[in-house]
Each structure stands twice: as structure tokens, then as C-alpha cells.
Write a structure and sequence with these properties.
This protein has helices at about 30-50, 55-60, 80-95, 110-125, 135-155, 165-180, and strands at about 15, 20, 65, 80. The chain is mainly alpha-helical. The strands form 2 sheets. Strands 1-2 form a two-stranded antiparallel ribbon.
Length: about 200
Amino acid sequence: MSPLKKEPNNQAIARTSSVFVPVIEHDLASFSAMLEAWEAAENFLMLQSPEPPTLAETAALLGWTIPPEDGSRRVKPKPTATAKATAAALNLIRGGYNTHADFEGLPVAAGNEIAIQAQYLMNNFDGPYRTITAERIEEGKKRIGVAVAKTAQDFIKGDVPRNRLRIALDKNIYQFAREAERKPPVKLSFEFFLSPER
């Protein structure tokens, strides 16, 4: 199976009000192509229902799911890492923190690492630290978005290996916070940005 190409004459997605042809998930494919497929799938589902589609619904449409290990039909398949990552990247874009261009040039594996870590950090701002001011939370989220773009470019240039992407993202966030305020955003220590899920 060869990587998908993101070219106008080789579109991986076909869309109308009644047709949707999904992209086959592939680790060596362009993350941008996978992101485009996810966005198209969400748009397609929103044509069918006024309610925003869930992660599971979009993943099922694309076939980006992991079946239960025991093969049981009573347990629903879980979304793959690419499903979670493209959903996270789309949330960053729709929130105004990133653009599609920030993810261009990344392979799926690298895009997954960056987007999933960014979502983890965003969720922390909406969780135990939601008691701080909305302005401070927004400042922190914007720094995450800037760090996402910087980390992606560092990887593309060969400055960061894939197995260090999450740590590189954390360090970039901390660096931007120090440059802006000479201290981490919302008075959080550097350790806050280091996810235990490594």
C-alpha cells in the first residue's frame, strides 16, 4: 500500500449529499490528508443530522476503529490513534489556535503525536485549572497552538525525532510562556506540561 497523495487530481475523498468515500488509514500517509478526510466525514455526518457527530460516529464512518480483542459484537470498536489525533487537530483549527497549514508536511505518525499531546494539554486547562480567569486560560491555549506549529516545523526540518515530539511540544510551550511573562502560564510549573502518558 503506497502513501496517499494530497493532489487535486488524486483526491482521497469523494463528497456529495449522498456519497462519501473514505480514506484508508495509513501511517505513512500525509497527516493533512487524514485531517481532510476527518473533516469531510464530520461535514458529511452533519448533513444527515443536526447534532454534531461524536468521535465514535466519525471514526466508524471512516473505518478508523480497533475491533474488540475478543471479537465480541457487544463491545463497540474503539477509535484509532489517527481518529483521535485528526479530531484533536480539527478542534485546534476550529478553536482558532492553529490552521491547516500548521500540519502540512507531517506524516500521520508525527501528526498523531503532536495533536494528541496538544489535546491532552488543552483538556487540562478545561479541567482542574478552570477556576482561573478565562483570559489566562485563553493565553495558555494560544501558546499551545503556537507551540504545535513550531514543533511540527522542527520535526519537518529534522530537528526533533518522532519519539521526542511530545516532550518537544511541552518544552516549546514552556519557552513561549517564559518569553511572554518570564514564568509559566497560569502559574503552572513546567512539570504540568509533561504528560505522564509517555
